């Protein structure tokens, strides 16, 4: 019996040891726990200060702070503010009548809080970045008022519905839309993007939609990656694996639609960083092209949709809406109907020519129809002869040499958005605005001419969200300070510019063989007689040793080389002494070509992401009025 009592007592004692020793431990370690808490708060304060530095920098760039980072900072601020209150409680507790009870409670709180703070400090050390670029709205419809009712065309609705049905099909991973240039492919896929983005959460096909437009005949992979990344709020470091970073970012989205607009040949999606097929079954790709075989054979799309011309009644409705009800007058209607038919049912041609002839007299309409019938257009891949004739007529109907010169200048400045600042600098350098010598007056003149071109549907509002983070020097930053050309309008403009009397040349050079071809071309009469050259280089090792262009006034060189940069030979500018505008992107001027010193007439120099070692040669350019310098490096 005694043994049983002893055994029971022993078990009871074991049960009591824990509850008794824990409070005792808090009392015994009271000073240690209070001291440790203060040390952890000091460490938290230091960690907060370190984290605040990149957060402040990100806020200054307009980035958005990750929610977990913001919550961490809020937590840290709260703890640091409570430090004095906690120490005050500790001081009062030592004077309290319930001294042991207060010490026990404070010691327990201090230990638990110190452990929690230690975990938070560890969390701060594991943050992978603190911010992201703001999410941009889904790609909008073409902003031109002439295209607002585009989706109402019945011939487009069926194609739109078929595309949406294909995107709902789980077995469809890549589909394409093809059709003549100016048919409205870009507008259609933007409508798809808009529809997907506006779906209710429970019916949402995709969590995210990203789009890259103007892929061009010589794709710049870095530009495509940049356009997609900007939509996702992803920033690249200069030396990192861009494709790998983009791939991992896209994989974070369970369901994502990637739209690549206006492709001209095979694109390696993995080189861009687009996960596809088994690599990411939730990623679907929508492509557009002028060429059906580019989609079906080069890209191996699973289904292609042909965007045909508008029906005659749809084309006439759009033409009448743009030109105005005056086309229904008995004396004008037969002529207007024939003019509309020459637009070949393509919206871009319908809108531009209707705007060009709007409110004109019958005789002007008759003359325009005769010009369209007699036109001998240049062949451009994917552009019908009728569309070429319509756009050329719209150009011819522009009122004044200044607006025509500005239109052709826009065609030389690349395939994407063009900043108004850049347009102004080039226009001033070429003296396009005769008699306007102050920046204020020239700015107002440019705004007027650009609006004229927009009203004629020959220029559109810029749409690249990433570029719109750029701060304009001369224009209201609250307004859209970028413009762009429809790809068909741009192609026709370049064709017009290549003819006499302009003699402008736009060349896209890809690979080392093109460098050999350039050397041969620079000795031709075409090169010697040209007045403006726009040269886009991709993956080239070298340039010709020199340009023999005694009449050259404008030279733009845009290279996509990252490492090494395309190098400018020392004597490259020796025979271009009439040059007034020099616009260089991603080229190496190390050492600075001595032939720069020959450019005694140079008025505008733009250096974008160029490497330069010695800037003293710039000081020798006595007539230089505009120097624009962006990015690296000295």
Give an overview of the whole structure.
One of its GO terms (biological process) is defense response. InterPro entries: AAA+_ATPase, Apaf_helical, Leu-rich_rpt, LRR_dom_sf, NB-ARC, P-loop_NTPase, Plant_NBS-LRR. Belongs to the disease resistance NB-LRR family. Pfam families: NB-ARC. It comes from Vitis vinifera. By secondary structure, the chain is an alpha/beta fold. The protein folds into 4 domains: 132 residues, no CATH class; 153 residues, P-loop containing nucleotide triphosphate hydrolases (Rossmann fold), CATH 3.40.50.300; 72 residues; 238 residues, Leucine-rich repeat, LRR (right-handed beta-alpha superhelix). It has 21 helices and 19 strands. Helix 7 packs parallel to helix 8 and helix 13 packs parallel to helix 15. The longest helix is centred in the first third of the chain and has 31 residues. The N terminus is likely disordered.
Q: Give the helix level as a range of percent.
A: 40-55%
How confident is the prediction overall: mean pLDDT? 81
Could you tell me the strand content as a percent range? 5-15%
> Major sheet, described briefly?
6 strands, parallel
Strand order of the largest sheet: 11-12-13-15-17-19
Number of domains: 4
Number of helices: 21
Family: Belongs to the disease resistance NB-LRR family.
Keywords: ATP-binding, Nucleotide-binding, Plant defense
InterPro entries: AAA+_ATPase, Apaf_helical, Leu-rich_rpt, LRR_dom_sf, NB-ARC, P-loop_NTPase, Plant_NBS-LRR
Pfam family, one: NB-ARC
Overview features:
single chain, alpha/beta, Rossmann fold, disordered N terminus, 4 domains, 634 residues, 21 helices
């Amino acid at each position: 019996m005694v043994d049983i009592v002893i055994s029971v007592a022993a078990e009871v004692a074991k049960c009591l040891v824990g509850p008794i020793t824990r409070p005792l431990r808090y009392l015994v370690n009271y000073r240690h726990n209070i001291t440790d808490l203060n040390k952890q708060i000091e460490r938290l304060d230091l960690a907060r200060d370190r984290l605040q530095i990149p957060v402040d920098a990100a806020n200054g760039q307009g980035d958005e702070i990750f929610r977990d980072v913001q919550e961490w900072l809020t937590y840290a601020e709260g703890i640091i503010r409570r430090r004095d209150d906690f120490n005050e409680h500790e001081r009062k507790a030592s004077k309290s009548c319930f001294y042991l009870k207060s010490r026990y409670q404070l010691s327990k709180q201090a230990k638990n809080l110190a452990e929690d703070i230690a975990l938070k400090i560890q969390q701060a050390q594991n943050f992978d970045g603190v911010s992201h670029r703001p999410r941009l709205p889904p790609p909008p419809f073409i902003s031109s008022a002439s295209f607002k009712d585009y989706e109402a065309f019945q011939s487009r609705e069926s194609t739109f519905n078929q595309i949406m049905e294909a995107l709902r099909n789980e077995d469809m991973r890549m589909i394409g839309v093809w059709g003549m240039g100016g048919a409205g492919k870009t507008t259609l896929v933007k409508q798809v993007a808009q529809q997907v983005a506006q779906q209710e959460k429970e019916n949402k096909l995709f969590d995210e939609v990203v789009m890259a437009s103007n892929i061009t005949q010589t794709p710049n992979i870095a530009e495509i990656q940049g356009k997609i990344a900007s939509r996702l709020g992803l920033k690249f470091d200069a030396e990192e694996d861009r494709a790998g970073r983009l791939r991992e970012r896209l994989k974070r989205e369970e369901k994502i639609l990637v739209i690549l607009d206006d492709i001209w040949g095979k694109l390696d999606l993995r080189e861009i960083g687009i996960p596809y097929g088994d690599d990411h079954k939730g990623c679907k790709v929508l492509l557009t092209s002028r060429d059906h075989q580019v989609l079906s054979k080069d890209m191996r799309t699973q289904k292609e949709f042909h965007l045909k011309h508008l029906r005659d009644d749809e084309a006439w409705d759009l033409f009448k809406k743009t030109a105005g009800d005056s086309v229904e007058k008995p004396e004008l209607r037969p002529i207007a109907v024939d003019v509309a038919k020459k637009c070949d049912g393509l919206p871009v041609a319908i809108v531009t020519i209707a705007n060009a002839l709007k409110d004109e007299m019958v005789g002007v309409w008759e003359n325009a129809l005769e010009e369209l019938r007699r036109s001998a257009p240049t062949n451009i891949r994917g552009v019908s002869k009728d569309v070429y004739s319509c756009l050329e007529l719209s150009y011819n109907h522009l009122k004044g040499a200044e607006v025509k010169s500005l239109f052709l200048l826009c065609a030389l400045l690349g395939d994407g958005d063009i900043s108004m600042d850049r347009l102004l600098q080039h226009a001033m350098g070429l003296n396009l605005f005769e008699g306007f010598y102050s920046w204020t007056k020239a700015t107002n003149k440019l705004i007027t001419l650009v609006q004229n071109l927009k009203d004629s549907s020959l220029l559109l509002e810029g749409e690249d969200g990433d570029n719109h983070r750029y701060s304009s020097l001369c224009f209201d930053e609250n307004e859209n300070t970028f413009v762009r050309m429809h790809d068909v309008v741009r192609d026709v403009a370049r064709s017009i510019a290549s003819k006499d009397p302009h003699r402008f040349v736009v060349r896209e050079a890809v690979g080392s063989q093109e460098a050999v071809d350039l050397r041969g071309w620079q000795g031709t009469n075409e090169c010697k007689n040209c007045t403006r050259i726009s040269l886009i280089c991709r993956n080239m090792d070298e340039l010709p040793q020199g340009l023999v262009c005694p009449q050259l006034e404008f030279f733009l060189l845009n290279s996509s080389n990252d490492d090494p940069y395309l190098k400018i030979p020392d004597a490259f500018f020796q025979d271009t002494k009439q040059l007034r505008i020099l616009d260089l992107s991603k080229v190496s001027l190390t050492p600075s070509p001595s032939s720069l010193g020959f450019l005694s007439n140079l008025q505008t120099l733009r250096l974008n992401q160029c490497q330069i070692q010695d800037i003293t040669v710039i000081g020798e350019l006595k007539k230089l009025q505009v120097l624009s310098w962006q990015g690296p490096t000295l």
